[in-house]
Write a structure and sequence with these properties.
This protein has about 220 residues and is α+β, with helices and mostly antiparallel strands. Helix content is about 55%, strand content about 20%. It has 2 domains: about 1-135, no CATH class; about 145-225, 2-Layer Sandwich (Alpha-Beta Plaits). The chain has helices spanning about 5-30, 35-60, 70-80, 95-115, 115-135, 160-170, 205-215, and strands spanning about 85, 95, 145-155, 170-180, 190-200, 220-225.
Length: about 220
């Protein structure tokens, strides 16, 4: 492993980690998650760089334990993941999948950094399989999947358009949690809501987010699953 620690190997590992992270992030961004392509790519590349730095210090200077720095990545990434998790007013927890995906990307980056390419590749394929297929085909209802959306809107929000959208696409409202946003930069009161929608597993989640985003009064929409 260490005899191959050269410029080409470093370039290959960093590039592979970028590709693996981007592939996971692309899937998350399509679903409207705030942690998308850029976030997952940076986490994966950064983890690989930490692993490479640890190897470099060990090989060239004989310093310390090669696993010490990578271990800090595993524990430290929890701070980023914690920022993805929301607890709503009715004690429902949102964002666990996004937090787990961020942590998983860091693990893939470390695997690439140590040269465990096959393991990183298989893990990436398995994660994409879980994110894309399992959530749709093993939902609580055979032909439906629940999507949690965080929405910011103003008082000009057109509720009738939202109701019409749900009716046309046979979307069911499962749960809702509203609260006032304290934003000093906005003259008009802004509001936020977290809604759980039950949609057909054949419906594209990115299409749904785009449709909701186009409703009058909607400022932004994120998938927080």
């Amino acid at each position: 492993m260490f005899e191959q620690f050269d410029i080409l190997s470093i370039f290959i590992r960093l590039t592979m980690s970028m590709i693996f992270g981007a592939s996971i992030g692309f899937d998350r961004s399509k679903k409207g998650s705030p942690a998308g392509l850029k976030t997952h790519s940076l986490v994966c590349i950064g983890s690989t760089l930490v692993m490479l730095t640890s190897e470099y210090c060990f090989v060239n200077y004989g310093l310390g334990d090669i696993t010490r720095l990578p271990a800090q990545v595993i524990s430290g990434i929890g701070f980023l993941g914690a920022g993805m998790i929301l607890v709503t007013g009715n004690d429902r927890i949102k964002g666990l999948t996004s937090a787990a995906s961020i942590w998983f990307s860091a693990c893939i980056g470390l695997a690439v950094g140590i040269g465990f390419y096959f393991g990183a590749f298989v893990a990436t394929i398995l994660e994409l399989f879980v994110l894309k297929l399992l959530s749709k085909h093993f939902s609580t209802q055979a032909n439906q999947v629940t999507i949690d959306l965080y929405i910011e809107y103003t008082s000009s929000f057109d509720l009738s358009s939202m109701i019409l959208l749900m009716k046309n696409h046979k979307i069911e409202l499962v749960n809702e949690d509203n609260h006032l946003l304290k934003n000093l930069n906005v003259k008009e009161n802004s509001y936020s809501t977290i809604i759980s929608l039950q949609i057909s597993n054949t419906m594209d989640e990115s299409e749904l987010i785009s449709l909701v985003q186009n409703i009058q009064g909607i400022n932004c929409v994120y998938n927080i699953n």
